[in-house]
Specification:
The complex is a heterodimer of chains A (about 160) and B (about 375). With about 160 residues, chain A is an alpha+beta fold. Chain A has helices at about 15-20, 30-35, 90-95, 120-125, 130-150; strands at about 40-45, 50, 60-65, 70, 75-85, 90, 105, 110-115. Chain A is globular. The chains are: A alpha+beta (about 160), B mainly alpha (about 375).
């Protein structure tokens, strides 16, 4: 380790794990370190509710381990909309549009989620142009994919978040 | 939060908010040696945070950025102090020598004003108002030297405690985010988003209040200095700064500031009593500017409080904890209000409580999954 405070951030396993997530795939290591300091981690047990339909959208959730199902309120089987695996994220539309959640999220199995709180997310987007542009690009790509899937009738994935 | 979560709290929550605020003010009054450096550190943290964030965004680690920011601040402070010390050393004797004339000038102005009142109102003349009041003032005031010594000793006793401020500010800058995550980790999943929102609101309330207060001080200083300079007062900038800092004590501080300027006017312009009246008029104008222009621009609605509640709580703060209560009541009430309203909403939200019970049940089941007989 040198004494140079401007040294390049060495990539830890945790940062590599973050880089594998689609939302942060374009970020450089130093940018990932800035994002990492803002993320919270939560563990949910199978069947535990992550958020309810109608709640305020205060955060984006990123699946680190396990799986999450998106469903209509209280209908995890009959109202299933999507199952999200590790690496995917959800809760972004309610957060970006400042609207209440339009579906329920539940843990499909024991899972670990990274949580990006609204104020931290918006604050970062407002103060760090490079990170903002890279994350915005990933969000736009994700929206495009959802739109394409919906148009092709692949599923209603995410439309209700 | 949506409109539903912005609804006002009930009377029980408000009673609890007021009770907790008064209790905290009493506790804070007993430990001012810690509260004052803590508050100064908090103000430093909010002022220095953008610099630290800039350094972090330029690739520094958080610890290096926090350390660098504090070192920069201390260097600027030491340079400023080094430049001020020779000036203070040469003027200290003058300051000490001029306190007594200013007090005497103030008393003369008071005597003249009371005599003028006696001439207009025979009832006051019969009561010998001027003579009685002056006798009492001279008896209780004593000499300036008697008051300067305890003030100087008090400042010396506070110095070690004040040195804590940059030390605390460094750790606020370095570990603020970590502390926030530590607090959030202790909260059950069902309340997690609400807790993050609460921490954010507390942070925003304090940031808006303290940075607003600093901006208000700068605006007040320059407005008063400009007005006093136009009136021909000596040391207008220093007087403006003293009055702006005194204004940190709600209501009482503004009156004290006005009194200081009237004392200066009565001493430096003994033959022109109109100067004192002009100074009072200037203070009234600045007070109005404060209330209707500067406050909305700076501290503004940072505390989201009804004006009646604000005024009543200032009186309550003064009654409970004296001068420290007057100074601390608004930020303390702001934070307790945010916490009280959020906690009130969480514990009365049947769905959140049900989700919490469900999660607890799931955890209990998982913990005993291989323990069934």
């Amino acid at each position: 380790m040198g004494l140079n405070p401007f040294r390049r951030h060495s990539s830890s396993p945790r940062l590599e794990k973050l880089r594998a997530l689609s939302l942060f795939g374009e970020l450089a290591t130093s940018e990932l370190a800035i994002v990492e300091a803002l993320l919270h981690e939560r563990d949910f047990l199978k069947d535990e509710v992550i958020f309810d339909e109608g709640e305020d959208g205060q955060a984006i959730y990123i699946v680190l381990d396990g799986a999450v199902l998106i469903c209509r309120q209280g209908e995890p089987e009959s109202g299933l909309l999507a199952t999200l695996e590790a690496g995917s994220f959800f809760g972004d539309i309610a957060l970006l549009e400042n609207l209440p959640r339009t579906a329920q999220a539940r843990a499909a199995e024991n899972c670990r989620l990274a949580v990006f709180f609204r104020a931290d997310f918006v604050g970062l987007m407002e103060t760090h142009g490079v990170i903002a542009s890279k994350i915005s690009l990933q969000l736009a790509r994700n929206m495009g994919k959802r739109l394409r899937d919906a148009t092709l009738g692949v599923g209603s994935v995410h439309r209700h978040l | 939060m949506t409109s539903s979560s912005r609804n006002g709290s009930g009377p029980i929550v408000w009673a609890a908010i007021i009770a907790v605020t008064c209790l905290l003010l009493q506790v804070f009054q007993k430990m001012l040696w810690l509260v004052v450096p803590f508050l100064l550190a908090l103000i430093l943290y909010y002022i220095l945070y953008p610099t630290m964030q800039y350094l972090v965004y330029r690739g520094l680690s958080r610890a290096a950025a926090a350390g660098g920011t504090i070192v920069l601040f201390l260097a600027a402070f030491i340079v400023g102090a080094a430049l001020m010390v020779p000036w203070l050393a040469t003027h200290m004797v003058d300051i000490q020598a001029s306190v007594e004339p200013y007090l005497a000038g103030g008393l003369r102005l008071l005597e003249r004003s009371l005599q003028a009142l006696e001439q207009s109102w025979s009832m006051l003349a019969d009561a010998h108002l001027a003579a009685t009041a002056m006798e009492k003032f001279q008896h209780s005031a004593g000499s300036a030297a008697e008051h300067i010594e305890p003030v100087a000793m008090g400042v010396a006793a506070w110095m070690p405690s004040l040195l804590l401020a940059p030390f605390l500010a460094f750790f606020f800058l370095k570990d603020g985010l970590r502390f926030k995550r530590f607090l959030a980790r202790a909260v059950p999943n069902a309340f997690f988003e609400r807790t993050l929102y609460l921490l954010h609101e507390v942070d925003q309330t304090l940031r808006a209040y303290f940075t607003g207060l600093m901006k208000l001080t700068v605006l007040d200083t320059f407005t008063l200095a400009a007005g006093l300079w136009l009136l021909g007062f000596p040391g207008a900038l220093a007087l403006g700064l003293i009055c702006a800092v005194l204004a940190w004590i709600p209501y009482v501080g503004s009156v004290l500031g006005g009194l200081v300027v009237v004392l200066v006017a009565a001493t430096d312009f003994p033959a022109q009593p109109s100067m004192a009246y002009w100074a009072i008029a200037l203070f009234i104008v600045v007070r109005l500017l404060d209330d209707f222009v500067y406050m909305p621009l700076t501290v503004g609605k940072s505390l989201h409080m009804h004006p009646l509640v604000t005024v009543l709580m200032i009186f309550a703060g003064g009654a409970v904890a004296g001068i420290s209560g007057l100074m601390l009541v608004l930020p303390v009430l702001g934070v307790v209000m945010v916490c009280g309203e959020t906690i009130g909403k969480v514990v009365t939200d049947a769905r959140l409580m049900a989700r919490h019970r469900h999660a607890k049940l799931l955890r209990r089941k998982q913990a005993s999954i291989d323990l069934q007989v």
